[in-house]
UniProtKB/TrEMBL annotation, chains A, B:
Signal peptide positions on this chain: none
Native species: Proteiniclasticum aestuarii
Domain of life per record: Bacteria
InterPro entries (alphabetical): KDD_N (IPR058932), NAD(P)-bd_dom_sf (IPR036291)
Record-linked SUPFAM superfamilies: NAD(P)-binding Rossmann-fold domains
All residue ranges annotated as the L-erythro-3,5-diaminohexanoate dehydrogenase N-terminal domain in the record: 11-158
Protein name stated in the entry: L-erythro-3,5-diaminohexanoate dehydrogenase
């Protein structure tokens, strides 16, 4: 009988001791699975953009050298984690074997085509052969095996849409799913950075959840992109503004909500110093949701105190139950959103 | 009739335009108040420790030079914000005048002795004369006036306890007040960094709120200090552990909660890399509360996703309604806590 491993995969950490797989320098990539692991026959690696760029430059843009570098990293670490950037990426593959302890607990069977939604930087991987490297989309096609831990998250790739379309949406699955769970009918919602990939999905989801009595207001720098949101009814109102200018954003935002402060503000802006623009327009007792990786913890914490705002500030968690399903559903039900995604991100 | 200013004080920002008073380089410290401002007759400035140390070193520990430097900063900026560290501090004073628009809205009258709980880095200040500088406690006694904006937070200094005791507690008022509001009867609560000033107050408050059916577990490095918490019943159980070692902390923490994951974890540790130790022991749907300024936003966000934890992660807000009252109440009702505070922090 097979052994049961730690649900977080610490049983595969070789060094340093006592850390989680993501922080480890070397993990065990023996492909004989534990009782609570999933073995995946890997089709392709989608390398994180920062990581791929670094490797490509180090290799002087030579495809063969890029391949050798990737093989070296995986042989050395047991996972595809770029030692310079620390980042990984995700993979696409077919489920080959599911450990007995998991079989009846999860909605997955051998043969299912999945994308992993945990980082390659913590995923045991063994590459037999690199088949092709598509430099324009940071994709490496391989003959390889990988292992998903019990805590590992994944999405079954839907059969009713283009794979790259699904991947583009799954890439930002956390944010719209959190919006779906948090926003209630009648809420007023301000979305900062609303014209990006994540922003559009959040706006669409917020519209669905507040309706018909709420108010969703979108803001971003780009006037034209905001027109697109308005035209497609992904928001009730929109204004162009610089999220680094809190007073201006607050004044415009309040104007668009009948002078009242908002129940919820969602930050998906990808520049720094936008914390105050997110905090100021929200009412006492309201929620400020930071999904931007450019958020500064101390600027948010000290900023809210400085203006005496009794708001709950939440760190955007990339994972919440059902996040992949909620996100893909948006593309299924909105032809407009799907068309925009196909045009911009596929 | 007097004019009404912005509740956040932007009407006093001189440069750069469009920012909040904290981010401003120069604010207007004219002591003729607006309709919604409070004029304070200042007794003493408690300079932020990082700021005082920097000024003291620049002045070669010469008291007179320290005083001159402080005068210069305030003349230049209209507020006591150290240009090197960016930080401020707080002040103690007596309310001199309250603008008409505020008079009936707030629980304050002329003659009340208060401590401001917003930073000096955003408070209009005009110093007439420095009376004394107490280098051992970073305190500057002054003849000065200051202004509190409508959004400014403050605490009336209690008459039933030593002023320095009250200040020591008010300094960390946010954390225990958030615990008071968040923790429910029956909850299991893990407190990381429990033996510090903030940690002890959080533990005491958690005990009060979970009782008698909950479980409060304290952890920190210092065995001896944990004994003090146990002896005084500020927690049900305690274990010594290094919060930078997530697997170890998780295993010990689960042991102390009957193998179950926690409803809430509170991080008041003051070292880096303790995010995962806070996230791992919490159940799906539970709350992870980061109160440490050493928290990394990205480590928290990516870390929770990496282990597939559907937890709500909250950025500790130093302000919540009634925070000063909740915190001072702890010292009133617990003789044990008061004695520890008097010994360690006064």
């Amino acid at each position: 009988m097979k052994k049961t491993g730690c649900r977080y995969g610490t049983h595969r950490v070789i060094s340093p001791e006592g850390v989680l797989p993501q922080a480890a320098l070397k993990i065990d990539n023996d492909m004989d699975i534990y009782d609570n692991e999933i073995l995946v026959d890997v089709i392709a690696l989608n390398i994180d953009s920062a990581s791929f760029t670094q490797i490509e430059e180090e290799a002087g843009h030579d495809t063969e050298k890029i391949g050798r570098k990737i093989m070296e990293i995986v042989e050395d670490r047991g996972k595809m984690q770029n030692p310079v950037t620390g980042s990984g990426g995700m993979l696409i593959g077919v489920v080959e074997e599911i450990g007995d302890a998991l079989k009846d607990k999860i909605d997955l069977k051998a043969g299912d085509r999945i994308a992993t939604l945990v980082s390659l930087s913590l995923t045991p991987l063994k590459i037999e052969k690199i088949m092709d490297i598509k430099k324009d989309i940071d994709r490496v096609e391989v003959e390889a095996k990988a292992i998903l831990f019990e805590s590992g998250i994944y999405a079954k790739l839907p059969k009713d849409m283009n794979e790259n379309l699904a991947l583009a949406a799954l890439d930002v699955a956390g944010a719209p799913a959190q919006v779906a769970k948090m926003v209630k009918p009648g809420d007023s919602v301000l979305i900062l950075g609303a014209t990006g990939k994540s922003g559009m999905m959040c706006a669409y989801e917020a519209m669905k959840r507040v309706g018909p009595t709420g108010n969703v207001v979108a803001t971003d720098l780009r006037e034209e992109a905001l027109e697109l949101l308005l035209k497609n009814r992904f928001c009730h109102k929109a204004f162009s503004g610089d999220a680094r200018k809190p007073v201006e954003v607050m004044n415009r935002a309040l104007e668009m909500n009948g002078g009242r402060e908002y129940d919820i503000a969602i930050n998906v802006v990808n520049v720094q110093n936008t914390e105050m623009s997110t905090i100021l327009p929200v009412r006492d007792g309201g929620i400020v949701y930071f999904f931007s990786m450019a958020t500064s913890f101390t600027k948010a914490a000290l900023g809210a105190e400085g203006v005496g705002k009794d708001v709950t500030m939440v760190v955007g968690n990339g994972y919440t139950k059902g996040h992949a399903e909620i996100t893909l559903q948006e593309l299924r039900e909105s032809e407009a959103l799907r068309k925009i995604f196909e045009e911009l991100y596929v």
